[in-house]
Design goal:
single chain; 110 residues; mainly alpha
Length: 110
């Protein structure tokens, strides 16, 4: 009995295993790959070479603008913590010295 969508019924499931539909579907063909060596050292060597090969579409190095953007983001992360921590660890004299230097720098060109 050949099973088609029109005559599909419970008899399909009671057929002999060799006559069930999935038994007659062709297996997909294997993708042929290079044979890998069975020797552990040679296999390790092949894997290292495979993983370190330079791809045809090599990654371009980042531009100066991209580097600047990344570094600014990193600075913002540390800066949010760094200023508060710096304030708590500095003495009043150190804060006064830094404030004077900053004021001189602001008023230098005016």
């Amino acid at each position: 009995m050949k099973v088609t969508p029109s005559n599909h019924n419970s008899a399909f499931w009671t057929l002999h295993p060799k006559q069930q539909a999935w038994h007659h579907i062709a297996m997909p063909k294997r993708i042929k790959q290079e044979m890998r060596s069975r020797d552990v050292n040679q296999l390790a060597h092949q894997l290292v070479e495979l993983s370190t090969q330079i791809a045809d579409s090599a990654v371009e190095p980042p531009t100066k603008a991209q580097i600047s953007q990344v570094m600014a983001e990193l600075g913002r992360r540390g800066g949010k913590i760094g200023g508060k921590r710096r304030l708590t660890t500095m003495t009043a004299a150190e804060r006064k010295k830094i404030a004077k230097r900053a004021a001189r720098a602001r008023w230098k060109n005016k």
